[in-house]
Write a structure and sequence with these properties.
Elements (H helix, E strand, L loop, with lengths): L1 H8 L7 H5 L2 H14 L8 H35 L18 H4 L13
Helix pairs in contact: 3-4
Amino acid sequence: MTPLLDQAAARQPAPGGASAAGPTVPLSAGPVATAARFSARQVRDPEKLALQADQLRHHAAAPVDEDARAYQAMLDTRQDCGTGSGIRQPAGPLADRPAAAAGPAPDGGGEPVPE
């Protein structure tokens, strides 16, 4: 688990926000299914509830896997085209400053220079 958490916090393009947050639904559906299976006396039709949670778990996991594959394909394509990893490295006098403190973009826009 620690390597995944470290990757999610690293300054790298993947895993992105969707890939990092996406597993929360399938991970949450697992304990719901387990609880339903142990709740035959407390819940009406616990197997139906468990089946619904299992279906949600499987259904919600598919986009997470697809997102990771699609993003990796995009990174591979960028690499093949010679455009690099897609991470823009700061340069010049603002390189050591956080983006929010850097001020307006060089083109005169009101947005800070992205890192």
